[in-house]
What we know:
about 70% helix, about 0% strand
Amino acid sequence: MFSSPNSTDNLKKVLMIIGAYGIVQVLAQDLGIKTGKKQRDLIQSMPIQIIVLYAGAYTVTDDHSNAAIATGLYYLLKYGYSKGKTSDVCFESV
């Protein structure tokens, strides 16, 4: 099953937009801009999380395999290595 160059380009554009959204979301939070409640609920759903994280990794790597590995590694470390025990912030001492 081969996809046409146009559909490949469209997928790449969609992934880049979703990845850029993820960067904008983090920047907005860092600047103290509040997130909408429905927006937060949507982004915190597991399927959307996976898509946004994958798209962010794809935006950086421009490679589907590397994006999948990076996304999988994140969840492996979160649920496997950390056994699902989470922290409120990434760097607590800062």
